[in-house]
From TrEMBL:
SUPFAM superfamilies: Ferredoxin reductase-like, C-terminal NADP-linked domain, Riboflavin synthase domain-like. The keyword Chloroplast does not apply. It comes from Streptosporangium fragile. InterPro entries: Cbr1-like_FAD-bd_dom (IPR008333), FAD-bd_FR_type (IPR017927), FNR_nucleotide-bd (IPR039261), MRET (IPR050415), OxRdtase_FAD/NAD-bd (IPR001433), Riboflavin_synthase-like_b-brl (IPR017938). Gene3D superfamilies: Nucleotide-binding domain of ferredoxin-NADP reductase (FNR) module (3.40.50.80), Translation factors (2.40.30.10). This is Ferredoxin reductase. Transmembrane segments: none annotated. Its cofactor is FAD. It holds the Pfam family FAD_binding_6. The keyword Cytoplasm does not apply.
């Protein structure tokens, strides 16, 4: 049975685009109906394959943004300038179109609702996508596990899911969201533009004594910097899980 489950996840399935939703000027969410979808965990990803009429094919990995449930999966794709796959997914693909997917993939960078530890999420750019799946999974299950999200983005207009996150952090469920804007800040913002540093981590992240489960996702340089700051602040490296992507269009 276990082997059959693994093989099923390695099988390419033809999904149908049910809807598309613009998240920012450069990012779009694809809502996919995937017949026979085996289910996923918050934090997992899928492979997406595109095949040209001449037979040339290429594939990329994209994190799942949605909470588990049924045969519907959501992917949020940030358009990469001069990218081979993301421009098609984020600009061309339309409802009714087919899309080949394979997964879910990954078992390390996942959050399970039965884990009682406080959760600290740290995202850089589109690295918020798998962390959003965790936020949504918590909400769907009615969990009261303490959650904090520190989200670094270029500015308010570049922050994915900002309205949803703001609503969720105001509903009294225990989700706390802190934004770090690196290029542009809103009027009256209490901090100048800047990257995540040791001071901000001290203010926005659970103290090491709380022994939080920490998930960090974003570009490689961001992940390495944040992880180093967390360890220097006293967080147990064994409790820090990381997921990173580069400029070549890998995980997003």
């Amino acid at each position: 049975m276990a082997r059959a489950t693994v093989l099923g996840r390695l099988t390419w399935r033809v999904a149908t685009v049910a809807a598309v939703r613009d998240e920012t000027g450069t990012a779009r969410t694809l809502v996919l109906d995937v017949p026979g979808w085996p289910g996923h965990l918050a934090g997992q990803h899928v492979d997406v394959r595109l095949t040209a009429p001449d037979g040339y094919s290429t594939q990329r990995s994209y994190s799942i943004a949605s909470a588990p449930g049924g045969d519907r999966v959501e992917l949020t794709v940030e358009r990469v300038p001069d990218g081979e796959v993301s421009p098609y997914l984020a600009q061309v693909l339309s409802p009714g179109d087919p899309l080949e997917v394979r997964g879910p993939i990954g078992g390390w960078f996942v959050w399970r609702p039965e884990d009682p530890a406080p959760v600290q999420l740290v995202a850089g750019g589109s690295g918020v996508v798998p962390l959003m799946a965790m936020v949504r999974t918590r909400a769907v299950g009615g969990s009261r596990t303490p959650f904090r999200l520190l989200y670094s983005a270029r500015g308010p207009a570049a922050a994915l899911y900002r309205d949803e996150l703001d609503r969720a952090s105001a509903d009294g469920s225990g989700l706390e969201v802190t934004y770090a804007y690196t290029r542009e800040v809103p009027d009256g913002w209490g901090r100048p533009p800047g990257r995540v540093d040791a001071r901000l981590l001290t203010e926005a992240v659970w103290a090491p004594e709380r022994e939080p489960a920490v998930f960090v996702c974003g570009p490689t340089g961001f992940v390495e910097t944040v992880t180093g700051l967390l360890v220097a602040a006293g967080h147990d490296p064994a409790r820090i899980r990381t997921e990173r992507f580069g400029p070549s269009g890998g995980r997003s």
